[in-house]
From TrEMBL:
It is a multi-pass membrane protein. This is Ion-translocating oxidoreductase complex subunit D. InterPro entries: NqrB/RnfD, RnfD_bac. Its main location: membrane. The keyword Electron transport applies. The chain crosses the membrane at residues 28-47, 53-74, 103-121, 133-152, 194-218, 225-244, 250-270, 282-300. It comes from Alkalispirochaeta americana. It comes from the Bacteria. One of its GO terms (cellular component) is plasma membrane.
């Protein structure tokens, strides 16, 4: 029940919040987990049983690490694993690694993602960086060979060892096309990029699957539709300029949008409520800047992919954005 107070003018005003939504952390997180089901199924279809095992290990390790920290480090009486946030982190972390990644490295990634990326700051709602991307960045720096070994989709769905059926990612092919330029590279079709059947991380298997999950979150009101679009728009702007300048060396922006982790980053990473700005304007600035940085890293950086690092950089700048872009205040003022 709201407490009522009387202001100096005799008006009876209830203390905020004035409107309450039927939402909770658990409801939101489990809805996000549900939205990730199409991407999970696509990863399993294209990369087989190893995708199932890697994803399961990532989720179980994330949940176990959070429970151990809550129970034996924080010594809280109630666990937080039931809110689903550790499950979402585990899923997103698994989607950011190849299906061939050794399981012990997957466990290390989960420990870093949950232990350092999330719980070191006090748990969900307090972490400034996306935990799954913290884990991916650590794995990419620590195990560059394993993190850049890509299984060929559909080559050995029932095999537990995918090391013998590896290939290149679409972004890897265009990163260093050689002296002949892009004309000498056999690139996947746009249909393959959209539906699936390309090499890469588990969550990069199908742009369509990611979009379906993202649209579900937009429909539920958990994701502002502007953020994914402006992220992809920023990426398209940078890569489009490069393509217009030298189409023989740089691939067109549509290829960049469909390839790699752009879709996963746009719909599930940039839109993370905890690590993005408070206001819608701030979120748009955040997403657009991350998209531009992704394009710059892809074109001129040492790695063919730049989604993770661009979002982490923008995570660090969220306090600056919030300081200068504040929500409009209503009912604020004074007598002259």
């Amino acid at each position: 029940m709201s407490t009522q107070v009387t202001d100096p003018k005799g008006l009876v005003v209830a203390l905020p919040p004035h409107e309450r939504a039927n939402q909770s952390v658990a409801r939101i997180m489990w809805t996000v987990a549900l939205a990730l089901v199409p991407t999970t199924l696509a990863g399993v279809w294209f990369y087989g049983i190893r995708a199932v095992i890697v994803t399961a290990v990532a989720v179980l390790a994330s949940v176990a690490v959070e429970h151990l920290i809550v129970r034996y480090v924080f010594k809280w009486e109630t666990t937080t694993v039931t809110d689903g946030s550790a499950v979402v982190t585990g899923l997103l972390l698994a989607f950011n690694v190849p299906a061939s990644l050794p399981l012990w490295q997957m466990v290390i990634g989960a420990v870093v993602a949950i232990g350092i990326g999330k719980m070191a700051f006090g748990g969900i709602g307090n972490n400034p960086f996306n935990p799954a991307l913290v884990g991916r960045a650590f794995l990419l720096i620590s195990f560059p060979v394993e993190m850049n070994t890509w299984p060929v989709p559909g080559a050995a769905r029932l095999s537990l060892d995918l090391s013998a059926v590896t290939g290149a990612t679409p972004l890897g092919l265009v990163k260093d096309p050689g002296a002949a330029g892009l004309s000498g590279v056999d690139l996947p079709s746009y249909l393959d990029l959209f539906i699936g059947n390309i090499g890469g991380c588990i969550g990069e298997a199908s742009a369509l699957a990611v979009i379906l999950g993202g649209l579900f979150l937009v429909w539920r009101g958990y994701v502002p539709w502007q953020m994914p679009l402006v992220f992809l728009g920023g990426l398209s702007l940078v890569t489009g300029i490069a393509w217009v300048v030298d189409p023989g060396v740089y691939i067109d922006p549509l290829y960049h949008v469909l390839a790699g982790g752009a879709m996963l980053g746009a719909w599930f990473m940039v839109t993370d409520m905890t690590t993005s700005p408070m206001s819608l304007t701030g979120r748009i600035i955040f997403a657009a800047s991350a998209g531009v940085l992704t394009g710059v890293i892809r074109l001129f950086g040492g790695f063919p992919e730049g989604v993770s690092y661009s979002i982490l950089i923008m995570n660090a700048l969220v306090p600056v954005i919030d300081r200068h872009v504040k929500p409009r205040k209503f009912g604020y003022g004074g007598e002259k």
